[in-house]
Predict the 3D structure of the following.
Amino acid sequence: MRVRTLGFLIIAGVASAPSAFAGEAPKALREELLRTTQALVDALPTGDRDVWEKSLTDDAVIIDEFGRIAHKADTVASIHAFPKGLSGSIELRDPHVQQYGDTAILQVEEYERETVFGQPLVVRYESLLTFVKQSGAWKLAGYEDVTLPTEPPKLTVTGLTLGDYQGSYRYAPDRIWTVSHEQGELHVLARPGAKPNLLQPIGKDIFMGSDDERNLFIFRRGADGKVNALIERRKFNDLRLDRTG
């Protein structure tokens, strides 16, 4: 469903460089790498495998944002035109190119717009592409990207009683989080003096943090129906905090 069915990481040190420090790449090289990258992402919705076949080194290594590892053959084979009802495009923003001899690094934001059966979606990636010069041509040897957190749509969840969640939650003797509510908003404070994290409701007892990590906060209830614990789901792991008092 995504334009970036491949998300991508890459391997540094694919080629040796004559200098330990990078210099800003010449304008001509910068523009060439941007043209190549734009052609690669433009080929994803159309299923144009030839662009990827020509642009990747034979030993390219690609790891998407979910940790899936791909190489040239399986990457090219995975490219298919989008089915009817799905469309998308990627705009390259704020590019920076550094050159280490016959190796060049492109850092760029990939701003993706998708339409899924009429519903618009936006996903942003910060990407790092490693190019190496082979037989006079610049080839892509590595591709790394991470998804940038963006403001999610706000949901209206009825029947919430924010006072149910207010209190202190502990995960170690001297590690206590404070949950409070004010003017219809729920906040969690991890330590004195820290910036409160606004919790945005997703469903009953389930919230999403407004910080960069966008973790889930799940309040658990005991047999008496009262909140007795808080779960912070972070990077596919759960940190449990028991309610105190």
User: Anything to note?
Assistant: The chain has a mean pLDDT of 90.
